């Protein structure tokens, strides 16, 4: 009887919940992850009065001029012997989507990952001070509790180490990271990009090890670009644009705390399986319904599940269920009356249910 009450409650409450969610999440779609984004971008440097951090050498801040503050921020550092220009495209990309980005240089081109971690933390201090600098166009417009770090190669290793050194960081985006003997016991959500054919930081020696070393309780995603080299993630255009879409979705969720992007990220992953050679993931998102946008015509429960999921659809529709690596494991038809999908024979893990071009992440428990 208790289960019947729960079923009736979910049936009654779902349309109301969906309507509220739609109103809040209008515009949060994979199609909205454009390059560039909707906002115009301006820059600041030390010549404009920006703090000169002692742990790094030079910086450029990219910020949106017509978005709605307060803004989240991300600090980005290049790799071994590389200049800031090597990761420069990330600055205007993030800023055009409402996220302030500070790109820094290093005191030495030969700085190791630990030094780059300290440089990133110093760059975040600059962001905090910019929020209070009297003549800054960003005064009072920055949310200094929403700070992320990113980096390429040794800078990516440094970004992961920065999360260990400061657990108040909201998110990490590691770009083909290089870090030997990694010690990555932290709780900061981390997205790791790697290139399948990277000769400098082979995934088997770096990115894969980093992912496995990060605790299983930490939200994490590893995306290996098929045939990608060491610089495949230096730009949001990497992997045919998949790199930018995934990074932005990750930051929208874990940096900006916008759960509307939970199913956007899931859809972006599914859409990118043709350009990936490996995807590993272990993360939780608060949007259990997984609604993509206001046109969504279905939802499901329970999710997570041990056996069946119940799909609410308005009309007959075909579906396919894909594994986290993009392999189709189930296909079929659902209707308003025959709407159960049996997952009981599948191993535990993360799957993606696609119906009428829309996607929901499904978690299968033991």
UniProtKB/TrEMBL annotation:
Keywords: Signal
Disulfide bridge map: 262-285
N-terminal signal peptide: 1-23
Boundaries of every PET hydrolase/cutinase-like domain copy: 35-278
Domain Secretion system C-terminal sorting: 300-365
A UniProt-annotated Pfam family: Por_Secre_tail
NCBIfam families attached to this UniProt entry: Por_Secre_tail
Name the UniProt record assigns to this protein: Lipase
Species annotation: Kaistella jeonii
């Amino acid at each position: 009887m208790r289960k019947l009450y729960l079923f009736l409650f979910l049936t009654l409450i779902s349309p109301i919940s969906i309507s509220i969610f739609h109103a809040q999440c209008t515009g949060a779609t994979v199609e909205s992850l454009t390059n560039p984004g909707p906002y115009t971008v301006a820059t600041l440097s030390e010549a404009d009065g920006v703090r000169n951090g002692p742990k790094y050498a030079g910086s450029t801040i990219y910020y949106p001029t017509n978005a709605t503050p307060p803004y989240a921020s991300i600090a980005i550092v290049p790799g071994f012997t590389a200049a800031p220009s090597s990761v420069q495209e990330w600055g205007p990309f993030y800023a055009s989507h409402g996220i302030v980005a500070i790109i820094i240089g290093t005191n030495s081109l030969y700085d190791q990952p630990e030094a780059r971690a300290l440089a990133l933390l110093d760059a975040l201090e600059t962001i905090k001070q910019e929020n209070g600098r009297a003549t800054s166009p960003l005064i009072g417009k920055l949310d200094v509790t929403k700070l992320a770090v990113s980096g390429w190669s040794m800078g990516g290793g440094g970004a992961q180490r920065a999360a260990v050194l400061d657990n108040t960081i909201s998110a990490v985006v590691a770009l083909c990271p290089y870090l030997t003997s990694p010690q990555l016991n932290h709780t900061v959500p981390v997205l790791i990009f790697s290139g399948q054919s990277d000769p400098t930081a082979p995934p088997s020696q770096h990115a894969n090890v980093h992912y496995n070393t990060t605790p299983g309780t930490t939200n994490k995603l590893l995306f290996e670009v098929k045939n990608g080299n060491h610089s495949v993630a230096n730009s949001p255009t990497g992997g045919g644009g998949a790199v930018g879409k995934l990074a932005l979705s990750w930051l929208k969720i874990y940096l900006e705390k916008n759960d509307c992007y939970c199913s956007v990220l899931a859809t972006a992953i599914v859409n990118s399986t043709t350009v990936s050679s490996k995807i590993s993931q272990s993360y939780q998102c608060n949007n259990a319904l997984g609604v993509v946008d206001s046109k969504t015509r279905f939802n499901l429960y329970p999710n997570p599940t041990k056996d069946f999921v119940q799909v609410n659809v308005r009309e007959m529709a075909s579906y396919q269920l894909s594994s986290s690596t993009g392999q189709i494991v189930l296909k079929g038809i659902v209707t308003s009356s025959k709407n159960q999908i049996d997952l009981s024979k599948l191993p535990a893990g993360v799957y993606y249910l696609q119906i009428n071009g829309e996607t929901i992440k499904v978690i299968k428990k033991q």
